[in-house]
Write a structure and sequence with these properties.
The chain is of the alpha+beta class. The chain folds into two domains: about 190 residues, Periplasmic binding protein-like II (D-Maltodextrin-Binding Protein, domain 2), CATH 3.40.190.10; about 200 residues, Periplasmic binding protein-like II (D-Maltodextrin-Binding Protein, domain 2). About 45% of the residues lie in helices and about 15% in strands. The chain is built from 17 helices and 15 strands. β8 and β9 form a beta hairpin. The radius of gyration is 26 Å and the shape is globular.
Length: about 425
Amino acid sequence: MKKIFVWALTLIMVTGLLSGCSETREESIEPKKTKDGKIILDFWTFWGSETRRPIIEKIVNDYNASQDKVFVKHTFLPWGDIWTKNLAAIAAGKPADVVINDINSVAHRAKNGQAENLSQYINDDGFKDKFYPELWKTVIHEGDPYAVPFNTDTRLLFYNKTAFKEAGLDPNKPPKTWKELETYAQKLDKKKGDQYERIGFYPLWGSFGPESWMMNADNGQGYIDEKGKVKVATKEKVQALNWIKGWNDRIGIDNINAYKADFGSEQSNPFIAGKVAMMVDVGTFYTQIRDYGKDMEFGVAPVPAISESDKNWSQGGGFVAEIPKGSDNPEEAWEFIKYLTDKEAQTYWATKNFDNVANKEASEKAMNMLKGTDQEIYKATVENLDVTKLHPVPVDSPDYQSKINPMIDSVLLGERKASDALKDAEESVESSVGQ
């Protein structure tokens, strides 16, 4: 009897605690509307830095002031956390109303029922024409849009004009082909014994990895084409991987590793510090040079093409505004997304962040508003969007890169031949997509 009493008392206490917790949770749940009757719209982003957060919140505040139907509440979630929390909230039936998400995985979320189909809200046949075609293409799944492009990026060759002059190169004539890039790099190298004081160029520094160089060599074609055909082991990609391996052999892994640690910083970035003469990076890298380069004399140019007869293909990414599946206020969310991606908000974002936006008209306006070097570099990024390719994650093989990257590493480490490694990678990816 004593044991039963203790058990019953414990049960009552636990039930009371759970009841109290439930009441606390219910009390803590925010109302669906503000005191003055506006619908609360939850908006999640990962823009929490001291530079970007004030900009997105200014856009949100402007929207709140522009109408009296909704109140947009901006919530910052750290990079990485936002993706997992978004999916968890959708699964729990309590998602945000609008979330900023990765552009290359829109189709994946569409297939899995994690994003709203926006075709029911787009009544303007010309709506898609506001955006760069390459970006709009990535938000389509089985003919319907599931997001709206917000911003993007592109990569350029940054080069040190002072170093060019020292090496006897024309600072107004950057390399246009891979062959010229090699020739220029060797002239720009500075060595003291076996140690490099300056490395002319190394292809994997900056933000242009093996996949980007292989795409550049293969007429802009990524690992999987638009029809789902796997194209990992093309002769052009094999050639590109061997070309990258050649840089490892010439410079030496020890020298490469000695420089690698400094690329995470700003002031000591090897390019800004003058230890690297040329580097491929995103257009926004310019702001680091501007802020930390102490009047560094530099230029930008398209990424060199594999040959004179080829285009200067670059690779891009970006983010979209999306309505998670199950939003309580999808119509109101759509109205906010239209505002986020329209000319006014996009122009403000572009000029304040020096960021490439998805809205074409806003992009042109921002370019004209900027002055001096800001305008010169931004203009180069806008023009480069014409040769910038995005490569969405295939819905049938979301982990395809994990099958390819180890094979690439084995080649760069000298363990395998490029042709054999990429052939094995291609067969592995084909098996995962059912080819």
